Amino acid sequence: MQPEDMYILSANGSIISTPSPKPYPNKPPKCTDCAPLFMKVWIFLRAHGYERNMLRARRSFLVNRRLSLGKRLRKLGYKAYEMRNAGAVIHSHGMESCLVTMLNPQAKEFRITHMEMIKGIQGHGYYDELVVPIIENTAYENELTDSLTKAIEAYPKATAVLVRNHGVYIWGDSWIHAKTQAECYHYLFDAAIKLHQLGLDAATPDHGPIRRTIHSQIKDSQYEREWPRRWIVLDIEGTTTPITFVTDVLFPYARENVGKHLNLTYHTAETQEDIKLLRAQVEEDLREGVTGAVPIPHADEGKEKVIAAMVSNVEAMIRADRKITALKELQGHIWRTGFECDELKAIVFEDVADALEKWHSSGIKVYIYSSGSRLAQKLLFGNTDYGDLRKYISGFFDTTIGNKKESRSYKEIKETLGVDDPAEIMFVTDVYQEAVAAKAAGLEAIISIRPGNAPLPENHGFKTVTSFSQI
């Protein structure tokens, strides 16, 4: 929206200028255009405490965003303007936008697919899955600023953010797009609530029964009916991808190109952050006497000395196959260059692509949990010999959520996914210790048997598969 499309107000509220006449759809909204929004308890902007039913045309204005509108409004309501260059933002307290966040108090996202009105949301079609982040409500709206900012950053495709037990923020390129999307969002929220009341799942293509374990109501009965799991979490090495691809291709590529990468990108913010992370890790390694750790000189001693020390430490870390965030972040950045230059092509087992497609079409959410960085995971699944498989994957977890051999990491994944019963999550890995940790957190753990994987202990007690077709 341009300044000439707005009523410009002075500090005392008098009108400085009015919008110039323009043909539809560029004209500013009239009071009659806004009326349906206020009937739904939606607001564009109003004085705090002003009765919505008292809205009059002479009291309706579009205000230049550069005016001082109050600290809370600038910090919260204008985040979409600042971060997404929105033309208009609608904040709604519509009942359905509150109730839909209560269906699962643990959920961090609202998801729905295969509904006609999804086509009214920017960048989405009937077959797409619409995902809206949910943030937690606070006593004061200005306290939502940080969580709203993080949600907008984490969901670049989203045009709305739900606030639990509160409402929703919706934005668009213009007031018309914002209003259209608001109507579609509220329709979809209402549809999801009604589907839930019928015991149906809005997040699956067939909108079939909500999948959960249902126990018989017959007294002392041991029978139960188990619905298929809705969440599958996959390891990469030895599970979706041959271990040899990582050890014989990715690791050598990173080791051979670390010096070149650091030289070419040394002054970028990304590489400086990589150096900062590695420096902190090396300082810890030196205190603990880790083999191969050498001090990294201060930047004042020169680029060449810093890079030489970085290369020495990275090579030692790769040889030791260390699962640390600082190394994985740098490796991911190096591999990104390799994939972009077609020097690398990811390999997955032949049954992986078909299984991912089948699970996706069945409404099962698939996530990846690997010691590699999220960037590295996305690069791998985005550049496989079976094409881009990221469309079948709902999200990626790395060691920032915790060590893969610690049960609390899997508890954190459960909370992030908003799952009440951890047994509804299936975790597939080739590492026995990871399976033990996942099982301790309540997940169902399955061990993948692939060529080159390490042998398992006798009587390990876990179900094993040699192909995803067996899952």
Walk me through what this model shows:
The protein has helices at residues 31-39, 71-76, 79-84, 95-99, 145-154, 175-197, 243-265, 269-288, 303-319, 325-340, 352-361, 374-382, 407-417, 432-440, and strands at 8-9, 15-17, 42-43, 88-92, 109-113, 129-135, 160-163, 167-172, 213-215, 224-226, 231-234, 365-369, 395-397, 425-429, 444-448, 463-465. With 471 residues, it is an alpha/beta fold. The chain has three domains: 3-197, 3-Layer(aba) Sandwich (L-fuculose-1-phosphate Aldolase), CATH 3.40.225.10; 231-239 and 346-470, Rossmann fold (3-Layer(aba) Sandwich), CATH 3.40.50.1000; 244-340, Transcription Termination Factor Rho, Rna-binding Domain, Chain A, Domain 1 (Orthogonal Bundle), CATH 1.10.720.60. A six-stranded mixed β-sheet has the order 3-4-8-7-6-5. Strand 12, helix 12 (374-382) and strand 13 form a beta-alpha-beta unit. Helix 7 runs antiparallel to helix 9 (303-319). The longest helix has 23 residues, at 175-197.
Task: Give a brief description.
By secondary structure, this protein is α/β, with parallel strands linked by helices. The protein is built from 14 helices and 16 strands.
Name a few traits of the molecule.
single chain, 471 residues, alpha/beta, L-fuculose-1-phosphate Aldolase, Rossmann fold, Transcription Termination Factor Rho, Rna-binding Domain, Chain A, Domain 1, 6-stranded mixed β-sheet, 14 helices, 37% helix, globular, HAD-SF_hydro_IA
- Tell me how many strands there are: 16
Low-confidence parts, pLDDT < 50 over ≥5 residues? 35-53, 57-74, 212-228
Discrete helix count: 14
Q: How many domains make up the coordinates?
A: 3
What is the mean predicted local confidence, pLDDT? 82
**Quaternary status:** single chain
Proportion of helical residues: 25-40%
Strand order of the largest sheet: 3-4-8-7-6-5
Q: Based on Cα principal axes, name the global outline.
A: globular
What CATH architecture label of the largest domain applies?
3-Layer(aba) Sandwich
Helix/strand/pairing category: alpha/beta
CATH superfamily (homologous) name of the largest domain: Class II aldolase/adducin N-terminal domain
Radius of gyration using CA atoms only: 26 Å
- Strand and helix order: EEHEHHEHEEHEEHEEEHHHHHEHEHEHEE
Euclidean distance between termini CA atoms: 52 Å
CATH class of the largest domain: Alpha Beta
Beta percentage is 5-15%
Q: Sheet bearing the most strands, described?
A: 6 strands, mixed
CATH fold name of the largest domain, please? L-fuculose-1-phosphate Aldolase
